[in-house]
Each structure stands twice: as C-alpha cells, then as structure tokens.
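Input.
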Amino acid sequence: MLIIPAVDIKGGQCVRLAQGDFNRVTVYAENPMDMARLWAGKGAERIHIVDLDGSVAGLPQNGSVILDIAKFVSVPIEVGGGIRSMETVNYYLQNGVSSVILGTAAIQDQDFVRTAARIHPGKIILGIDALGGEVAVRGWTEKTGQNAIELASRYENCGIEAIIYTDIHRDGMETGVNVEQTRALAKSVSIPVIASGGVATLADIDRLLAVKDCSFFGVIVGRALYTGAIDLADAVAKTRGAV
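Output.
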C-alpha cells in the first residue's frame, strides 16, 4: 500500500481545505514545488496533486506549476482538478505527469473516460468523491445523486489504473479514514482502490493494513502530514513491514 502525500494547489500556493470548503483554506507553503520535493525526499513513491482552481473552472489553472513539479521532482505524480477533455489529458500525460484523475468527467461523459483509458492504458485514475456514499462533482460543490459503488462498476475492464475514493465529510478534518466504505468499494470492483479523506494518525494506516478480505493500492495523506501528526517516513515503514 503506497503512502501518497497530497499537494493541493490554489492560487499557486500549497493549501489544505476542510471538507472541500473553499472558504476554509489553510496555506502551508507559498511554493508547492518545495512541498513535493520534501515529500519525495522523505520516501514518498508517488505524490497526489490537485489543481483546486481547475476543479471549479473546468480546465487547468495551475498547470505550469504542476508541470514544473512533474519535471523536477523525482517520483511519479498523479494530477486531478479540471481534467474534462482529451486535450487536457494529453497536456499532462505528454509532459511528465504519470497519471491523471477524472472525477466530474466520470459522471458527465462515460465515453470520454473510456476513450482516455484506451488511449492511455494504466494512466487514468477514477476520482470518486462522496458525501454519505453519494458522488459529488465540480470541486465537491454539486451532489449528483449517483451511488459511488454503482459509478465505479461502470468502469470495470476498461483500463482504469485505480479509483481514489474520498470521503468528503472527513477530508482535511483528521477524523479518521472511512475504512468500511472504502473496503465496501474495494470489494465490489476489481479496479485497485486508493483510500482518501480523514487520515489522522498512524493508527489509520494500521486499520487499512489490517483489512484482510481485500487490499488497498494506496492511501492519500494530507493535513496530518502538514501538521506533523503523521511522519511520512514512519508511515512508509509501516507499509513495508518495518514497524
């Protein structure tokens, strides 16, 4: 299970939101590149980057910053936020980004997602962000009425690399990862699942690792790394059986 640090970008800065609320912003670094390099240096094998402005605008708003990270940081990066056309998919994947995350597009244009996965097999991640099991889109500003598991099931066997399942209520709150809903999703599909939202302490890593009837491809950790509640090296060591 990969420990994947999150670098969220808003207005060119590295920030964290509470429950996806754009009015509840904490700035952690003026330069997102510095944070990406820090996490890579501490043992991250992948970094999760979100263009928060892009998620609302529907197209990249911090693309140049993200491509600089892809160029100068030594580990693979996955990118989400405002990726709703093949032009944007190609923009990132042809310029050093390892994987792109499609969220809003997964609801609005199934053919686009399937086409992207066919053209770029193993490089398309499905982002499913949910409130009480109901999918939300457009930077978490709109509920869709769609069930998360039903949505994920539509994309079986089409080349999707992974699914990131985020519990919006818990995201940025350090209230503990939603193991049960994430486990339910992982058991319902063959696509690898990445847990996201609410990771607070190393105990959350232990809880995910303790699940025996399925496994998780990775877990995204945000605020807990920035506050120091979790040391990245310690978390990585747990996944490798060193602790």
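The two ends are 14 Å apart (CA to CA).
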